[in-house]
Amino acid sequence: MSKVALITGITGQDGSFLAEFLLEKGYEVHGIIRRSSSFNTFRIEHLYIDELLRDMHSIKKITLHYGDMTDSTNLIRLIKEIEPDEIYNLAAMSHVKVSFEVPEYTADTDGMGTLRLLEAVRFLGFEKKTKIYQASTSELFGKVQEVPQSEKTPFYPRSPYAVAKLYGFWITKNYRESYNMFAVNGILFNHESERRGETFVTRKITLAVARIKKGTQEKLYLGNLNAKRDWGYAKDYVECMWLILQHHTPEDFVIATGEMHSVREFTTLAFKEADIDLIWQGRGIEEKGIDKKSGKILVEVDQKYFRPAEVEQLLGNPEKARNLLGWNPIRTSFEQLVSIMVKSDINLVEREERIRREFD
Ligand code: NDP
Ligand code: GDR
After folding, report:
1. Which protein residue's CA is at the shortest distance from atom 26 of ligand 1?
2. Where do the CATH 3.40.50.720 domains begin and end in the chain?
């Protein structure tokens, strides 16, 4: 009998990689998707299009269900039907800056949503059957109290998103301690990929680099170039989610590379990957990234991308995961990550251009 997994947020970056990973492991995978006026399943299309093939070869098994983290009866009904061995709670309003615009919705989805899920499992009497992974975040550390940050570092959230996730973290731990549930937090530092949402800084940069290279965009506007992050590759990180649930005791883990780079460094490297050498001139809001060869200004700073409260730097200490889970923190290096993303976006822009020309 194959194990059954339920993934909330299956249409997101991590959900799509995790679904692939679990299918490879022979799991029967269920995912919750939201009703949307336009397609939101492009990251997992290749998995459920295989449904016909799956029946022929009886290998892959993925089933999608409509639902929402704000709807507790829906969650109860789905969990009752699916009877999952493992739940991965990845659904969230995950954009830090946007959370300042929609704080109440963020609290409802990211904070209360986690409670609804835990409570559904408890209400159905699945405490002993169903393990729960909660997608916690390095944003919990926010205004950092020590460097690098580990499982023992105190939290200081700096956005409505991080405060909502703080509730998610503690309620997961509380249900573990109160009801003896296998409910655990993966405190994941930033992880990126060619499937990253286009408004997160790394993807915004790599897509702009590809468009500038191909001549379909003039400039890239960014916010805080000095912000530093511990950036890993999402495909490597989903394995950790699974490993955390396979560990013999329910424990929380920090997942990070242990390396930190600035937004400016990421930008310079991304342009370099497209054979454009950037030089930086000016300071603060006046800073500009200039093409060394042509002298053209390619990057400017725009105040609108700054946050009301910023997390200046995050650097994780992945020692516990390395020692207890056998996790190799840097499977894909920073340079490889930037290269994967730029190459993928150059291919994407070329494809878009070909299609546009065909229909012109
Ligand atoms: P994405 O933003 O790419 O995906 C978020 C997913 O949540 C999407 O499938 C989205 O659906 C779904 N979702 C949003 N709101 C709701 C709701 N109300 N009900 C049901 N589903 C909803 O995030 P990532 O894949 O990058 O991240 C996965 C999780 O990990 C998130 O919880 C995030 O906060 C957390 N995290 C991410 C890190 C990272 O660096 N990527 C680091 C640490 C934590 P739709 O497609 O319809 O919008
Ligand atoms: P983050 O990711 O806030 O760390 O949250 P994001 O890529 O949005 O920002 C990283 C840093 O870059 C700075 N920045 C910009 N950010 C964006 N989005 N757009 C810009 O133009 C820009 N210019 C500079 C930001 O100020 C910030 O300091 C991500 C999300 O995936 C969360 O869900 C997750 O919990 C954390 O990572 C870990």
Report:
1. 13
2. 4-188
4-188: what fold?
A: Rossmann fold (3.40.50)
43-101 pLDDT tens trace: 999 887 655 666 655 555 899 999 999 999 999 999 999 999 999 999 999 999 999 99
Is residue 233 annotated as part of the catalytic site, yes or no? Answer: no
Phi, psi of 302 (to 5 degrees): -125, 125
C-alpha to C-alpha distances, 256 to 42, 63, 139, nearest whole angstrom: 27, 31, 13
- 37 in contact with ligand 1, CB cutoff 6 A: no
Query: Which regions of the chain carry the CATH code 3.90.25.10?
Result: 201-228+261-310+332-355
ipTM higher than the 0.85 cut: yes
Whether the CB of 91 sits within 6 Å of ligand 1: yes
60: phi > 0 → left, psi -120 to 50 → alpha, else beta; which? beta
Q: Provide the CATH topology of domain 201-228+261-310+332-355.
A: UDP-galactose 4-epimerase; domain 1 (3.90.25)
For the stretch 184-218, pLDDT in tens is 999 999 999 999 999 999 999 999 999 999 999 99
DSSP 12: S
Nearest CA to ligand 1 atom 47: 34
